[in-house]
């Protein structure tokens, strides 16, 4: 399965079109039928939503704020240039070694997030990203001069079960739902969602 968040307005943004094209090629390469790929962005226009359905992709009906559970299925999350809160919410929703080991995330480099944020901010605001760093394998997408703005700082992340099991037991305790002071994600019911066909 595949879940795509934050694709953006591909009808008017070339970078978003390139990201959509890469997603479609990736699905083809991995043998994932388009109908097994769910997409959501509160910014989609009705025309963009119709185009995605025409391509065979499945629109998620609600803004999950990144909180998509894998429900035991191996799942690829395609989240290029999404906000840190979206990654943090996704990790929280799947916070167990068994679930995380069945996930692959293509999105902003977790190492880059760690390098750019003060450790106290990372641990306070994005605690699930902070806690999973030692259990993460990450490989950066190769840079291409034509697509620097499209895929810069993008990595493939996966979470080997053995590495997760080596984390201290306290890492898995106290699974509180994240809250954010200055939210960088569009929440359910926010105005930006009203243009959304979903």
UniProtKB/TrEMBL annotation:
Residues of the SRR1-like domain: 1-158
Annotated Pfam families: SRR1
InterPro entries for the chain: SRR1-like, SRR1L
Keywords: Signal
Signal sequence, start to end: 1-37
Annotated GO CC locations: cytoplasm; nucleus
Domain of life from the UniProt record: Eukaryota
Coiled-coil blocks: none
Record's keyword annotation contains Signal: yes
Family: Belongs to the SRR1 family.
PANTHER family cross-referenced by the UniProt entry: SRR1-LIKE PROTEIN
Full protein name: SRR1L protein
Species name: Jacana jacana (Wattled jacana)
Gene name of the record: Srrd
């Amino acid at each position: 399965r595949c879940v795509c968040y934050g694709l953006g307005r591909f009808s008017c943004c070339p970078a978003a079109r390139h990201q959509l094209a890469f997603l479609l090629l990736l699905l083809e390469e991995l043998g994932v039928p388009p109908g097994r790929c769910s997409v959501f962005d509160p910014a989609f226009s009705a025309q963009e939503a119709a185009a995605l359905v025409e391509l065979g992709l499945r629109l998620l009906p609600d803004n999950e704020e990144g909180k998509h559970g894998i429900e035991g299925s191996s799942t690829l999350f395609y989240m290029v240039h999404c906000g840190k809160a979206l990654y943090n919410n996704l990790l929280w929703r799947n916070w167990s070694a068994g679930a995380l080991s069945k996930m692959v995330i293509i999105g902003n480099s977790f190492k880059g997030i760690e390098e750019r944020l003060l450790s106290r901010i990372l641990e306070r605001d994005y605690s699930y990203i902070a806690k999973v760093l030692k259990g993460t394998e990450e490989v950066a997408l190769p840079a291409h001069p034509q697509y620097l703005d499209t895929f810069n700082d993008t990595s493939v992340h996966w979470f080997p079960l053995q590495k997760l099991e080596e984390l201290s037991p306290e890492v898995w305790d106290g699974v509180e739902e994240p809250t954010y002071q200055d939210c960088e994600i569009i929440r359910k019911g926010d105005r930006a969602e009203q243009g959304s066909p979903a």
